[in-house]
Amino acid sequence: MKQSEREAILANQTRHEPDMSRYKDEAPMSSAEFKCLREYMGFSTKWLSLKWGVSEFSIQRWERNRQPPPDMAHWMRGMLEQFGQRVDDAVDAGETTLLVPRTDDDSPNVMPAAVYRRIAMNAALRMEAGIEYLP
Exposed (0-12), middle (13-18) or buried (19+): which is 68, by Cβ within 10 Å? Predict the structure, then answer.
């Protein structure tokens, strides 16, 4: 990842921050749940490490055998809620073709392109829509 990409992620990281206050009393997140959520939403270990300012090895360790820190677990659960809302919004829009970015450079903001593709796939399955790359 180029330095400019890292700077964009860090500069805009508050754009998609969920309200974490509602998750304060939740149970700790298991390593398996953390990895499942990361993969389901389309976050790479590299992207998460840059977002959170930790090593990629730390992300991998949380997925193997250590619980992620509570603030990371809360953030992931909040992002899952936003992910679900975006799927619902796409379904409610009723488009017959959903447009997705091909690469992170084509992504409309700091979120990885894989996130948008996964949102579109979930919505398309619910409404039998097609998926195409952004022109």
Answer: buried
